[in-house]
What we know:
- The complex is a heterodimer.
- Chain A is an alpha/beta fold.
- Chain A is built from ten helices and 13 strands.
- Chain A is globular and about 75 Å long.
- Chain B: This is ABC transporter permease.
Amino acid sequence: MIEVEHLHKSFQTRSGGLLRGQRRTVEAVRDVSFRVARGEVVGYLGPNGAGKSTTIKVLTGLLVPTSGRVEVGGLVPWRDRRRYVGRLGAVFGQRTTLWWDLPVRDSLDLLRDVYRVPPDRFRENLKAFTALLDLGPFLGTPARALSLGQRMRADLAAALLHDPDLLFLDEPTVGLDVVARERIRQFVAHVNAEREVTVLLTTHDLTDVERLARRVMIIDHGALLYDGNLPDLQARFGSARELVVDFEAPPADPRVPGLKLVSSEGPRVTYAFTGAAARPIALATAHAPVRDVTVREPDIEATIRRIYEGGLLGTVS
Amino acid sequence: MNAALLRWGLLGQAAGINARLYCAAARLSFRRQFAYPAATFWGLLTNLFFGALRVAVLLALFGLKPQVAGYTPADAVTYTGLTQAFLAAFSLFGWYDLMRTVHRGEIVTELLRPHSFLGFWMAQDAGRAAAQFLLRGVTILTLYALLWGLKLPEGAAGWGLTLLSAGLAWACGFAFRFLVNGAAFWSPDAVGIGRFAWALMGLACGFLMPLAFFPAWFQSLLAWTPFPSMMNSTVELWLGHVSGTQVLRVLGVQAAWTLVLLGLARLVLARGLRRLEVAGG
């Protein structure tokens, strides 16, 4: 579905005065290559300014790359952009495509004409999405009066009514409560399974990724750092397990031979270890009187934070 | 009206234009103008207040003279009524919608739609203008007719040609507004450019004063610009100051400027989008 080879994008920025300012070239994306198969859901992660949105803009035909080859469903996005974008759907969590002052139904109906969807197909889709996303109660409400969760559901329907091949989701659950998030994830999973829509998901909410994507790509400083599945990422780069020990009193020396010290704050000392927890616990309790111990499992978020912060990975070979 | 829309739709389809969409967009935009009745009411009241003020000033200017620069007092009253009526429909005080869309980055979502960007905006503005003319324009003209009396175009042909001219004035003005808003692609504070442009438009299209009141040299200078086509031409047709074959000439000039400005708007849009493509949003 998506083929990206050696994608480069650099921008000219000017700093200082208009006349004497110096031109600087910023490389937003450097030599990024990947392929996404039809029907895949890929989580695309990276800190702000990492090159995520530049990649997305190239894939949506809004930016022309400096060099590299990009093909989506056999088309080059920025060539004949208008024809190309008819096959895309997009939800940018922070923005709405609904008409602010008009009932949701009107915004959705307009999409039939925007994408020239056959009337029967349109009716069918609208009915299915209305049921799945429970749009019924607010189809007649103007977008400005919707709750954030309702607005996001309506926007999701709007992005999919024309049966796109490829769906871009950017922060689809941002600002929502747990129930609303879950509902949106279920819907995306359903649409992906039923309709074989390929989904590219950018988010800072890693639960979205864990629930929806089997595969993640991590980009930072414009380069692709990791491309693979989540369990592998955890196995390769997951931080060690942590043992949090609350001593009776702050220990004179928190260091315990055989345990790696992570932090020490008053009576609470944290150690890192791998493997089973029995031996580290024995070592710690032998060191000084202990009130409590907790074992903390590494989470995906911590793993990814470590990757960003430490530059754990070289670029993907 | 629906038959006319249908005919245009078929014509458009033959030309590969998604006419159904543009009609639908215009219709939605028309309807959204009715979403804020309070704003409409207060806008109307303001229009009327300033309209009354302008009538008083112009009539004082006339004094006992039967005519000033070809305008009778009745012409002058009708002129102020028309300018107040067109004010909202033609966005004569300025229009920054496209600028905002560019500056806020909302343009990105719009560009993900497979239709003509300019066409879609023009359709939306057509719907907005039509609704504003009905809501505020027609009401103002009715009130003027009741309060001070109003000169009307003569006969079906007079009405038809005047309304055609009003449509062209809107289109010409839209193209100009779109063009000015296009500055947003290059400048983060294009609002200043806008302010200057609207001031120029207000003066040169005959909104501040009938163009006939200006010195001859200034009038002939303006005749070489598109601005009179954005309103003054329509006013002169309405008042019957233009007659015979001159009417067709005026309409022709309006249509020509509309096409030229729309062409320029397209060009500027293409350049602006290329800038977005290369430099990012």
